[in-house]
Amino acid sequence: MERTLLNRWRIDENGRYAVTLDDAVVPAPIREAVAEGRIRRYFFIGQGTAGIAASACAGILDTYLADPAVQISALRASELSGSKLCDSGGDGSLSDALVVAISQSGTTTDTNRTVDLVKERGAHTLAIVNRRDSDLTFKADGTLYTSSGRDVEMSVASTKAFYAQIVAGAVLGLFIAGLCRRRDDGFVAEEIRRLLAIPDQMRRVLALRPQIELSASRLAPGRIYWAAVGSGMNKAAADEIRIKLSELCYKTISSDFVEDKKHIDLSSEPLIIVCAAGARPSVIGDIIKDTAIFRAHKAAPVVIADEGEDRFEPYAEDVFHVPQTVQHLAPILNTLVGHLWGYHAALAINDSSRFLYRFREEIRQSMEESAEKGLDVYEAILEQSFREKVAAFYREFRRLKLAGKLPGILGIESASDLTLLLKYLSGRLPVSDFELDFGIKGTARNMLNQLLACLGVAINALARPVDAIKHQAKTVTVGTSRIQEKLEGILFASLEEHDISPAQLTNRNILVVRNVQEIVADIKGSILYRIGELDLLGEPTAATVIEVVRKQGVLQPIPSRVETDTRLKGTKRIIVREGNVYIGKGRKDGRNIVVIPAISTSPDTPNLIEYLLLLNVGFKADVPRTAKIKALGGKFERIKNFVQENSVVWDDRHIDRVETEELFGWSAEKIAEFIVSQVSGAHDR
Questions:
Q1: Residue 604: its pLDDT value, please?
Q2: 67, 182 in Cβ contact below 8 A?
Q3: Measured between alpha carbons, how far is 410 from 412 in angstroms, rounded to an integer?
Q4: Rounded to the nearest 5 degrees, what angle is found at the Cα of 397, between the Cα atoms of 394 and 403?
Q5: Residues 221-237: what's their mean pLDDT?
Q6: In CATH, what is the architecture of 204-346?
Q7: 471-489 per-position pLDDT tens digit
Q8: Which one of 91, 96, 166, 660 is separated from 510 by 20 to 30 angstroms, measured CA to CA?
Q9: Which range (85-89, 189-193, 551-555) has the least confidence?
Q10: Cβ-contact 530, 547 below 8 angstroms
Q11: Other CB atoms within 10 A of residue 339 CB
Q12: pLDDT at 633
């Protein structure tokens, strides 16, 4: 946010504050149209979190202009393009409209398509975007970058950009108000001071983290139904908190106006996050009364309020006090508390899954040890060590259950099944009743398998990985959802042979493997590496190690550097850090290799890369051009761009000039140079 404000304002020689946006942000034709009053409608659009930011930005501009003759709207981009364009005037023209599109990545399909459609109807367009030179920046007439505009991350959630998007919208709103002469210098100066104060106010909110963590740990596991509420501008905060709680905690959560909540589903006794900070004095009293109603219906209100506001104390489970600010900027601080609360709520729920996971692993280990002793399953479950494990877990499980520490989402069925199974395996219930409870014979093997299956269901219900890149279900701009179709082929068979399931590959890598195997004729050898000592974020450190687990085929007799130096470095370190499938040539022997990273299946180390499978492959003799292009993936576009930079007209047939081994072994730059030399030579002849 500080970088978003940087160089966007100044103090002139007369000591007056002013917003400074150059022509690249607001081109001259738009400035003139605004100043001359030809812009009568403002539309802020976006999808998801960016759509919520659009709501906040529209409210801020409405506050700044305070002009009833001007229409200011916030819409999801898909709603504007799908439902509203036909209502844009008698002739469908949008020549009197300015559409401000908000996006983190600049690649959101709905938003970008809507910008195309409104421009066709004559609208002026601006973009608030996080990624420099993304698709949206080339579509809009002007671009206001959040941060410094140097964020090259594309496949990440908009959460981190949300706050900067609102501030960027406020800066743009002040600039527009100045062009319209709706606000004097004193107002502009005061508003700039408020914007500059927000980053430090956010730091004060971040200092509440221990208190927020304690609240989330105490309240999140025990409540099944959640809601977020806000009034006025804070409805945007409630909407964004709803999104983040849903993504982090895998819940369907409602978002309502505070006043409306007392008419809706209070019978579910939900946990309600109340966004009250920044509300007007005439409104805050009503919010306090509504919070009292929530509490009377056995809901659990968690309130975000201004510093010094203590009237919520009798009715709220927890109150988080944030620095005072004006109502049109209050969504920033309200949302920040909600985001932090949701993060710690996810961790609190996930802790329960780890508790179950550890017990399941102890059971499996116990069975393996029994097998090594030559015991059968009946003897194994009667061993004292096994029975002690079950008894110890049962006591802890029962203690957590009685204390309300087991998340309600575990469900009555899973909780009761686990209780019964533990009692059966500890010998406290007659085996003859097992079939009545579970529909199968009460053999030792059946009881053990049923316990492991029940634990698996419970673990899956409670696991809440908070890695935004790999786990949030963004299928268009993030693309991390798992492919459920059956996966077959030579590379997938090799993965299976090395006990690596498709679930251990990211969605993108599954697609890469599927495309690459279309050009692979055979696998000559393989090396399976295990990676250890990554940091908590899955990043390699100086302590990160790599070891050889297994070697096969032609690679088996060849010494590996890893066998004498276990430090992770070079190409393998890059692969672990970036998490992408690597296709190229071995540096020392020039063999064609494919390296596939596989993530851990343990909830204690979610999505940390645990294995690298290196395959020495042979390529097919005759590979169709389309198959080569698909297998090249993003490398194809880099080759194309490098060739075009040399003033050579691109043709997909240029790919055929390069042998398959070089096409997948050379860098994109080297391939482009080769193609340019071939094309230039052909022209010379």
A1: 64
A2: yes
A3: 7
A4: 135
A5: 92
A6: 3-Layer(aba) Sandwich (3.40)
A7: 443 333 332 222 234 567 8
A8: 660
A9: 85-89
A10: yes
A11: 22
A12: 81
- Token readout for 108 is 């959101």
**Distance between CA atoms of 452 and 421, rounded to whole angstroms?**
10
pLDDT of residue 242 exceeding 80, the answer is yes
Q: Are 305 and 321 in contact (CB under 8 A)?
A: yes
Q: At what angle do helices 49-65 and 234-249 cross, to 10 degrees?
A: 170
Encoded tokens for 667: 């860098």
Q: Where are the alpha helices (DSSP H) in 231-383?
A: 234-249, 258-261, 281-296, 330-372, 377-382
Bridge partners, 312 (sequence order): none
Asked if 136 and 115 count as a contact pair (C-beta separation under 8 A), the reply is yes
* Calpha distance 199→325 (Å, rounded): 12
208/603: higher pLDDT:
208
**Does 609 score more than 80 pLDDT?**
yes
Q: What is the pLDDT of residues 176-185, one digit of tens each?
A: 999 999 988 8
Distances 183 to 6, 18, 37, 164, 325 between C-alpha atoms, Å? 22, 11, 15, 23, 19
CB 70 within 8 A of CB 45: no
User: How far is the C-alpha of 466 from the C-alpha of 668, rounded, in Å?
Assistant: 35
Q: Enter the tokens of residue 131.
A: 């990624």
Helix axes 159-179 and 185-206, enclosed angle (nearest 10):
170
Domains in the chain: boundaries: 2-198, 204-346, 350-462, 490-621, 630-684
615-641: pLDDT as tens digits: 998 988 888 888 888 888 888 888 889
Rounded distance, CA 514 to CA 519, Å?
A: 10
Question: Which strands make up the sheet holding 97-103, listed edge to edge?
Answer: 71-76, 41-46, 97-103, 124-129, 142-145
Q: Report how far apart, in Å, the C-alpha atoms of 180 and of each of 31, 90, 567 are.
A: 9, 26, 63
Q: What is the pLDDT of residues 675-685, one digit of tens each?
A: 888 887 765 55
Mean of pLDDT values over 409-425: 82
Nearest to 476 by CA among 78, 45, 52: 78
* No. of helices (H) and no. of strands (E), the chain: 26, 17
The yes-or-no answer to whether 2-198 and 204-346 have a common fold is: yes
Q: Is 283 exposed, middle or buried (0-12, 13-18, 19+ CB in 10 A)?
A: middle
Superfamily (CATH H level) for 2-198: Glucose-6-phosphate isomerase like protein; domain 1 (3.40.50.10490)
Q: What is the pTM of this model?
A: 0.63
Query: Which two three-digit tokens encode residue 72?
Result: 């200011």
- b/e string for 646-660 if b means 16 or more Cβ within 10 A? eebeeeeebbeebeb
Alpha-carbon torsion (488, 494, 497, 500), positive or negative = negative
Q: Where are the alpha helices (DSSP H) in 40-180?
A: 49-65, 77-79, 109-120, 135-139, 159-179
Average pLDDT over residues 296-303: 94
- Of the candidates 454, 471, 382, which has an alpha carbon nearest to the alpha carbon of residue 415? 454
Question: Residue 70 corresponds to which tokens in the numbers above?
Answer: 């001007």
Helices (H), 373-467: 377-382, 384-402, 412-425, 434-438, 444-462
Beta bridge partners of 579: none
